Task: inverse folding
């Protein structure tokens, strides 16, 4: 919520970086971050001058590296949205040498992103024991996009209402909680 709010309002990010990772199983948060990131980076730049590249399937690491290191022609900024889960999804017990090399190359490429490029990694999950994740943890802004737990719904609802200068009365929150507990 905080990251989405900062992106919408064009406020400075809590961790200035060239890489943002939207990590978690809640598609709503991942899609909201993806929706607002371009306007945050480009501001008033017209859509036709925005250099946004998507890598969603069968990503070639050399092509990704070339895109990251190519200076943008029109706006002075480039945005890369990386959604190819095959890049970081591995079975730790059966990792092939090819996959290991690909992960090492990806870690190397993402460890040196120039200032004119921003990378958004959108991932429902990532093994936190991998060298890639450990490297991202040190250099990237990682936004937790996990689903809200039932026990956290009441404070979340109250925070959402407060952000709109409203409030829920106790009976309304209880009714919502009862419904969601059953669902």
Result:
């Amino acid at each position: 919520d905080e990251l989405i709010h900062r992106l919408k309002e064009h406020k400075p990010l809590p961790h200035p970086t060239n890489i943002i990772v939207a990590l978690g199983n809640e598609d709503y948060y991942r899609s909201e971050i993806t929706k607002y990131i371009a306007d945050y980076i480009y501001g008033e730049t017209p859509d036709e001058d925005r250099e946004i590249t998507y890598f969603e399937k069968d990503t070639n690491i050399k092509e990704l590296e070339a895109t990251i290191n190519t200076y943008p022609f029109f706006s002075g900024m480039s945005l890369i949205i990386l959604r190819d889960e095959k890049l970081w999804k591995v079975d730790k017990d059966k990792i092939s040498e090819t996959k290991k090399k690909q992960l090492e190359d990806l870690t190397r490429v993402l460890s040196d992103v120039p200032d004119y490029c921003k990378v958004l990694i959108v991932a429902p999950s990532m093994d936190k024991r991998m060298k890639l994740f450990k490297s991202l943890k040190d250099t990237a802004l990682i936004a937790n996009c996990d689903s809200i737990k039932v026990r956290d719904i009441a404070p979340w609802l109250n925070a959402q209402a407060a952000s709109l200068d409203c409030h829920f009365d106790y009976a309304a929150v209880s009714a919502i909680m009862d419904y969601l507990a059953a669902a």
